[in-house]
């Protein structure tokens, strides 16, 4: 009797252990592959015969009032659907997408951009070419073309990477917080915004202010290159590493590039150029403003020579 009670207590303890461990149901002796069962379920469902909801006709062996079992279904539910097939929206109700005009950013798009930029004889022509250009998908998501700001023919041309939200809304580059800081940096060396010419390598805002892809940059590069030729500045200032890398073809980071003068060839001219920190970066890292101050002092020296 004692052995029986002991065995019962041990069994109860074992069951309590299983419940505490999360095992609250009987298990098979062999492991069940639930993933394989899930994959095979649609095929089994499709192969099963359809369930008829019509009442069975009476037979001689059954009373006339007997009816076949039916599937309970509300009248407005409509016919049974085959859920083994993926749901698809009706073609006639599909709304047209704005991305239906998207193009593949390949070599053909780059060649098209080069040809369009080459035919521009003035800045107004170049702006019109960009407005009519359909080879860059960023145009489909941007609100406006951010072409340039400032005075054409200025001695100094500043180039950033791409416009942001404020610039996209206004159509003017460097108009937000980073633009306000840039205005103060120019004023510190005796320049006003109207004394310089400001543009971006990419004239359309990327969605969510993400970094432009290399393909997007390559497509837009012929336009900024032609823009530099038409403005014909005495000095170029690259705001951030992205614009300097795109136009100079270098791979150095901004810490290695900034502070030293380089050259950019445009229209047979060797234009002195300088790379410095982007104003948006200076807003996040204010301690680096001292280095940008040195760069702008170097620009002021060049302008006075």
From TrEMBL:
SUPFAM superfamilies hit by this protein: Uracil-DNA glycosylase-like
Low complexity bias: start-end ranges: 48-59
Enzyme Commission identifier(s): 3.2.2.27
UniProt keyword annotation of Metal-binding present: yes
UniProt catalytic activity: Hydrolyzes single-stranded DNA or mismatched double-stranded DNA and polynucleotides, releasing free uracil
Region (Disordered), start-end ranges: 48-100
Basic and acidic residues bias spans: 74-84
Keywords, in A-Z order: 4Fe-4S, DNA damage, DNA repair, Hydrolase, Iron, Iron-sulfur, Metal-binding
A Pfam cross-reference name: UDG
Residue stretches making up the Uracil-DNA glycosylase-like domain: 147-297
InterPro entries to which the protein is assigned, alphabetical: UDG_Type-4/5 (IPR051536), Ura-DNA_glyco_family4 (IPR005273), Uracil-DNA_glycosylase-like (IPR005122), Uracil-DNA_glycosylase-like_sf (IPR036895)
CDD domains: UDG-F4_TTUDGA_SPO1dp_like
Family: Belongs to the uracil-DNA glycosylase (UDG) superfamily. Type 4 (UDGa) family.
PANTHER family: TYPE-4 URACIL-DNA GLYCOSYLASE (PTHR33693:SF1), TYPE-5 URACIL-DNA GLYCOSYLASE (PTHR33693)
Protein name (database record): Type-4 uracil-DNA glycosylase
């Amino acid at each position: 009797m004692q052995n029986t009670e002991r065995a019962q207590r041990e069994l109860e303890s074992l069951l309590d252990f299983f419940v505490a461990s999360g095992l609250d149901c009987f298990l098979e002796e062999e492991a069940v592959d639930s993933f394989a069962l899930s994959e095979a379920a649609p095929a089994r469902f499709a192969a099963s015969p359809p369930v008829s909801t019509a009442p069975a006709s009476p037979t001689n062996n059954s009373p006339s009032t007997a009816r076949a079992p039916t599937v309970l279904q509300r009248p407005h539910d409509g016919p049974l659907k085959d859920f083994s097939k993926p749901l698809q929206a009706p073609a006639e109700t599909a709304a047209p997408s704005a991305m239906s005009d998207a193009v593949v950013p390949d070599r053909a798009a780059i060649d098209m951009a080069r040809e369009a930029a080459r035919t521009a004889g003035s800045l107004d022509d170049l702006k019109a070419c960009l407005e009519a250009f359909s080879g860059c998908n960023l145009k489909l998501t941007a609100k406006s073309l951010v072409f340039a700001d400032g005075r054409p023919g200025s001695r100094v041309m500043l180039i950033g990477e791409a416009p942001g939200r404020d610039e996209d809304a206004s159509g003017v580059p460097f108009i937000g917080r980073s633009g306000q800081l840039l205005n103060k940096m120019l004023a510190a060396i005796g320049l006003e915004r109207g004394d310089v010419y400001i543009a971006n390598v990419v004239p359309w805002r990327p969605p969510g202010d993400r970094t432009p892809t290399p393909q997007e940059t390559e497509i837009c590069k012929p336009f900024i290159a032609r823009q530099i030729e038409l403005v014909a500045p005495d000095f170029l200032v690259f705001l951030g590493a992205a614009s300097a890398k795109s136009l100079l073809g270098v791979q150095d980071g901004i810490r290695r590039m900034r502070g030293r003068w380089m050259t950019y060839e445009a229209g047979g001219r060797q234009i002195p150029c300088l790379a410095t920190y982007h104003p948006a970066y200076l807003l996040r890292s204010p301690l680096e403003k001292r280095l940008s101050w040195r760069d702008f002092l170097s620009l002021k020296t060049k302008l006075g020579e």
